[in-house]
Amino acid sequence: MEQRTILLVEDNPDDEALTRRALQQNDIHDTLIVARDGAEALDYLFATGAYSQRDATGMPEVILLDLKLPKIDGLEVLRRMRADERTRLLPVVVLTSSNEEQDIVSSYDFGANSYIRKPVDFSQFIDTVRQLGLYWLVLNVPLPRQRGG
Q1: How many domains are there within the chain?
Q2: pLDDT grade, residue 146 (50/70/90)?
Q3: Exposed end of the chain (fewer CB within 10 Å): N or C?
Q4: Is residue 143 part of a domain?
């Protein structure tokens, strides 16, 4: 089976470690790329900056995007993705601890495919990641990779 990529945009090392552990415990062995701020996420997606040598035609299967990020926040990352033809249709799951109604509304306004609050309890987090993996990596039919890939 083809190796797929998950882009995790997360600045909290503890949440990154929890996500890695949850993926492993759920036997999700896809390649995990971690961007620790919004600028790095955009550099990865558009093959600029530190990622200028990356093949820009290889896009992630799904993006797990935190909202509260340094440099460029998650909503701005989402806005820029949706404004660009290369990334406007990529599946984006906002995975955040924010309970703010405005964050939920803005996420969907900017084109998020899903909004999930990070559970505080680790066993619930493991189950959330299992369900995310099942849906986005197994059940969901991705957009055919016709454009340059």
Answers
A1: 1
A2: very low
A3: N
A4: no
22: in domain: yes
Sequence-ordered list of residues with C-beta below 8 angstroms from that of 75, at least 6 positions apart, any chain: 67, 103, 106, 107, 110
Strands (E), 58-144: 62-65, 92-96, 114-117
Residue numbers of the domain that contains 42: 5-133
**pTM for the structure as a whole:** 0.90
Rounded to whole angstroms, the Cα distance separating 143 from 40 reads 24
149 found inside a domain: no
Nearest to 12 by CA among 93, 143, 148, 118: 118
Distance CA 34, CA 36 (A): 6
pLDDT digit string (tens) for 46-82? Answer: 999 999 999 988 899 999 999 999 999 999 999 999 9
Q: Rounded to a whole number, what is the distance in angstroms from the first to the last CA of the chain? A: 17
Structure tokens at 115: 């909004």
